Please model this.
Amino acid sequence: MDEIDGPIELAEAPASGKRLPEILLLPNLLSVLRILLTPLFIVLMIQRRPWAAFIVFLVAGATDALDGFAARALHLKSTLGMWLDPIGDKILLTAAFVVLTIPALAQPNTLPVWLTALCIGRDVAIALGSLIIMALRGRRTFKPVLAGKASTVCQVFLMYFVLFLNATGKSPQSLGWFYVLTALLTAVSFVQYAFIGVRMFREDGLPPAGG
Model:
């Protein structure tokens, strides 16, 4: 997930000099494609087509890397992209967690309910916290922490791994350790984000409860 740190740059049509609508910028189109691929991924999982679902998830994941690269390389960062990119990420990842936790859709490897609850719950808590901070303090950018990036990368690769294993019909014992690693990184990142959120309130002078 990319952060907007500097001025937002919009693409301009070379011939007329008019600015393109933000939705037509290449990074934003890639984010929209990722969102549109998510229902297809879910349908393929419901239809018990693991290889097709795996390939669609791979393509959707590739758009995440490409939209960030395009935004930086082509100087096409935008306000819309700041929202579309993380929304596309979370929609895809949440959908993957949910369908892979349903035994009827994910065999022979089904994600444990506690892991899915932890990962999705962390994202919901962070999103709610960010909305509260924005509403009370007007902040619009939040720097990702190292543990947050590591946990997201681990979650994505866990999805790849489980989807691939289910497509090949394998169930290695090492998968359990992957669950533990993902859970630990997710929990650590949540604690770190929680401390950052509390510090934001204190630095901005929010009075303590009851004060």
User: Anything to note?
Assistant: The longest helix spans residues 175-203. The two ends are 37 Å apart (CA to CA).
